[in-house]
UniProtKB/TrEMBL annotation:
<keyword id="KW-0328">Glycosyltransferase</keyword>
<dbReference type="GO" id="GO:0016438">
    <property type="term" value="F:tRNA-queuosine(34) beta-mannosyltransferase activity"/>
</dbReference>
<keyword id="KW-0808">Transferase</keyword>
<feature type="domain" description="tRNA-queuosine alpha-mannosyltransferase N-terminal">
    <location>
        <begin position="2"/>
        <end position="172"/>
    </location>
</feature>
<dbReference type="Pfam" id="PF12038">
    <property type="entry name" value="QTMAN_N"/>
</dbReference>
<protein>
    <recommendedName>
        <fullName>tRNA-queuosine alpha-mannosyltransferase</fullName>
        <ecNumber>2.4.1.110</ecNumber>
    </recommendedName>
</protein>
<dbReference type="InterPro" id="IPR022701">
    <property type="entry name" value="QTMAN_N"/>
</dbReference>
<dbReference type="InterPro" id="IPR051862">
    <property type="entry name" value="GT-like_domain_containing_1"/>
</dbReference>
<comment type="similarity">
    <text>Belongs to the glycosyltransferase group 1 family. Glycosyltransferase 4 subfamily.</text>
</comment>
């Protein structure tokens, strides 16, 4: 099978997914075309132009049995620019969707990314989502968007997409060799070791993170903290406030280049804390759980799909109330003689390999 793999905004989770996909199906012949994950607004709107007429133009016009593209790919325009692609069966993979993206007073809220998501899904022969939450919020978002349009809106589009889609998570890599020896926590008398691992952007709710750290401090809970994740050109100022306010508690700050060292921070932590307002699978949390780290998560987004109530704190009320709920949940987890068991086996590559091969073969044979 000759497969063209398109990653039009190759963020970390997208890169992890495409590497895992090829590792699961090494007997297929893969051709990758990826665009860097920067200049988001331009990339999602202009990737079809960059791909069709740029350095990858000849690669796109070669013969393939199947095209697999991420949802960031402007597939409807790309198939118009490159007619050869319109004749090849195509599957689109949604790591996230723009319908569930939180609004902010600091960002320009445009409907265009949602429309591009919709067009790409309709231009595909089949659509895959990494979680039921992702699929459900996408279909609900499409329905809500179509109801706002003034006229000539075709009927049955959400139903068509629902029928033509399913859920396949991003596979977790083998973590059996992960070691906790690379993490450098400060030596103190049994502090809680807490790690936060996400993009340094507003949709990960750094205001809530700051409030939780302040609540921990106020209750005199001894803790050390690792603030992991990518920092971008425009980062909310609250991250600088956190770095300054808790400088005496932070043992790691910022992106960890080494994959082994990153996993070491997860493996050596007691808790992985999330404050995300925008999360469709939560790879960092799942990897941490696989390494024995206990999740402390907001009761929203994808998390209730994968984790029991013992790990979920309330997200009702203001930020201070949410922070108190998170600390209450942490204290309750600390008091448990045995932590609730978490199984990440359904996300293992060996578990998902057959499902991926079956689905993609079916699409290719259409």
């Amino acid at each position: 099978m000759r497969v063209l793999l398109l990653s039009a905004y190759d963020a970390q989770s997208h890169a992890q997914w495409r590497r895992a996909l090829q590792a699961m199906l090494p007997h297929w012949q893969w051709t990758e075309v990826c665009l860097p994950a920067r200049y988001f607004a331009w990339r999602v709107r202009g990737n079809s132009l960059s791909l069709a007429f740029g350095e990858h133009a000849d690669t796109l016009r070669e013969p393939y049995d199947l095209v697999v593209a991420t949802s960031m790919t402007d597939l409807s325009a790309l198939r118009g620019f490159v007619p050869e692609l319109a004749r090849i069966p195509t599957a689109v993979y949604f790591h996230e969707n723009q319908f569930a993206y939180p609004t902010s007073s600091h960002t320009h809220n445009s409907v265009e990314p949602q429309v591009l998501n919709l067009y790409t899904a309709l231009a595909a022969d089949y659509v895959l989502f990494n979680s039921h939450f992702n699929r459900r919020s996408f279909l609900q978002g499409v329905s809500a968007l179509l109801k706002k349009l003034p006229d000539l809106v075709p009927k049955g589009l959400p139903e068509r997409l629902e029928k033509n889609s399913e859920v396949l998570p991003v596979p977790l890599p083998d973590l059996t060799d992960a070691s906790a020896s690379d993490a450098c926590w400060s030596e103190q008398e049994n502090p809680l070791r807490i790690v936060w691992a996400a993009r340094w952007e507003f949709d990960k709710d750094p205001e809530l993170l700051n409030a939780i750290l302040m609540a921990l401090d106020k209750r005199n809970i001894d803790f050390r903290f690792a603030l992991l994740g990518q920092r971008f050109r425009h980062t909310p100022r609250v991250f600088d406030d956190i770095a300054q306010r808790f400088s005496d508690r932070i043992d790691q700050q910022g992106f960890v280049e080494s994959r082994a060292a990153y996993l070491s921070w997860l493996a050596s932590a007691d808790y992985i804390l999330s404050t995300a307002q925008h999360e469709f699978q939560g790879l960092a949390v799942l990897e941490a759980a696989a390494l024995g780290c206990c999740p402390l998560l907001p009761q929203r987004q994808v998390y209730p799909e994968y984790f029991t109530h013992e790990h979920l704190y309330s997200t009702t009320g203001d930020v201070a109330q949410q922070a108190e709920s998170a600390v209450d949940k942490l204290v309750a987890l600390q008091a448990m003689a045995t932590k609730p068991e978490i199984s990440v086996a359904p996300f293992a590559s060996q578990h998902l390999c057959h499902a991926y091969e079956s689905v993609l073969t079916r699409v290719a044979n259409r």
